[in-house]
Each structure stands twice: as C-alpha cells, then as structure tokens.
Amino acid sequence: MSKPTMEAAYRIAHELLKDRLQEKAPEMLAALEAIQEADVLVVRGQYDHIEDVFRHSGTPFTPVLGNDLARVLLRPDQIVFVNCPGLIPEPALRSLAAFVQDGGFLFTTDWALRHVLEPAFPGYVEYNQRRTADEVVRVQIHQGDDPFLSSLIGADDDPQWWLEASSYPIRILSPEKVAVLVTSGEIRERYGEAPVFVTFDVGSGKVYHMISHFYLQRSETRTLRHKAPSSAYLAAKGIAPELMSKYRNLGAEALDTGAVESAYTSHTITSRILLEKARQKLGRPRRGQG
Q1: Least packed by Cβ within 10 Å: which of 26, 121, 238, 276?
Q2: Cα-trace Rg, the chain
C-alpha cells in the first residue's frame, strides 16, 4: 500500500472511530472534540509525521521545533508528541522530564527511545541494539479492562504494523514499572523483543512509546480477510448500510481491509491517549486555580 492509499485509510479510520464512539460512548467523542490547539504539542521530526494523522482527523495541535522546546512553557494538562528521531537538545530533555514529573503526558516513537527516553527517563526502557528491516508485522492488542479499546478493537481484528527500516526494538528494563499495551510475536522472533507500544508512570505524568511510527505508511494483505474490500470491515464494525455512501465518497471502495484496519488500530490507540489526557484535564484545575 502506498502513502496516498494510507492517507485515505486514515481519513476513513477517523470517520469510523467517530461513528463508533457516537454510538457507544458519545461522551468520549465529545471529550475528543473538545481538545484545543494548545493542548497538544507536536515536536517535528524527519521520519515520523503524526501531524499528518492529526490533520486527517481534524485534531488541533501546535507544532514545535525540538530546538525551541526548552523555551516553551509546558503545562501539566498538555500532551507532547515527539516524532522520530527525537533529536532534542539537553535543556529540552530536562524540560520534558520536569513536564512529565509534574503531570504531563509524553508520547514518543522509534529512535526517540535512544535520544529521549534513555537519557531523560533512565531505567525504564532501552534500545536492544538490533535494528529491524522495512517490513510489516502482525501485532496483538492487550485491551485488558480498558473500556475504550475493548469496545473498539475486537477479538477478531488482525491488525498489521509497519516497521520503518532500522526501527529500534524496545527492551524492558523495569517490568514492574512498564506496562506493555501492544506486542508482536514476529518482532520477538526476529529481533528478540515483543513490545510494540509501552507506557510507564513518572511522578504524576505518563510516558508512552511505540516502535516505528505514529503514521503507518503502508500495510500488507496477508490473508483473504485482509484482501477483502474495506466495506466488509466497515460492516463488521457495525456501520449501517445508510452510512456507507459517506465512506464510498472517502474512497473506501479502492481500499482493502488490511489498510483500513491498520490505520484504524493506530488511530484508535492514539485517540485513547488523547482522551485520557483530555478527561484528566477536565478534572484538574490549571495553575493558579483552586
């Protein structure tokens, strides 16, 4: 699947998430739609571009250069996304560490494991020194008792995850402190580590990290199910026939299930973190209040 195809897949994934939340949890949809530009900061990167995902979904955000991050007044009710490679100067790393300690959320990808997490949050996770190939792997989502993920990603889902060439496998240093939310048996077999998406608490805040990128640039069709038209996937997710015209207008007929499922899984996980911070913000006064 090409990048333009995945762009269309992300647009469809966003509409699918909205429709499912409108049916199952409209209060969650309202919280996501209440996010403001100042709530989400995106540190630009060379290789990853979560800002593209946010543009497709209409999520407001503020772009920031890594060199400027130390001069930005970070608030604990914000979430900062750091695109790969995460080349951030030392003063900005100290600022990020203090931001998370005070309650902020930090979300990083791929090479930021070495450039951001290892120096700013030592002892939790590290790069295992075995770079991946450019490939697509099967992943397993561990919903646990999370009502958001369990209601949106079903037991029959079979999402694929794109690994950028030279992605950094994640080694867990503190199993008692690090929760693994997504794994891949294929990554474990080839590169020695199963984690795809992990999180850990630091002070009052949280850190999230995933191997490869926020923005999945391609998928694969490994099974007959993946090769099926995306309309079959949309129907399985409960989209009513009268809504299908909207998805056809977005290009669904040209896409297969594999592409839309991969984009939907990625978008749902990212939205889960945005929602957690948005709901936390509603219950926490700003500095100078309360």
Answers
A1: 26
A2: 18
6-53: pLDDT as tens digits: 888 889 999 999 999 998 889 989 999 999 999 999 998 887 778 888
CATH classification at residue 192: 3.40.50.880
The structural domain count of the chain equals 1
CA distance 234 to 259: 12
Under the phi-then-psi rule, with left for phi > 0, alpha for psi from -120 to 50, and beta for the rest, what region is 107?
beta
Question: Nearest Cα to 169, choosing from 218, 202, 135, 215?
Answer: 135
Output phi, psi for 127, to 5 deg.
-75, 135
Beta bridge mates, 171: 126
- 288 is a domain residue: no
User: Nearest 5°: CA angle at 106, between 105 and 109?
Assistant: 150
Contact 102, 204 (CB under 8 A): yes
How is residue 155 written in tokens?
Answer: 């037991």
pLDDT tens-digit readout, 237-278: 999 999 999 999 999 999 999 889 888 888 888 888 898 888
Question: For 130-133, which contacts have Cβ atoms below 8 Å and span 24 or more sequence positions?
Answer: 130/169, 130/191, 130/192, 130/193, 131/165, 131/166, 131/167, 131/168, 132/163, 132/164, 132/165, 132/166, 132/167, 132/168, 132/169, 132/187, 132/190, 132/191, 132/211, 132/212, 133/163, 133/165
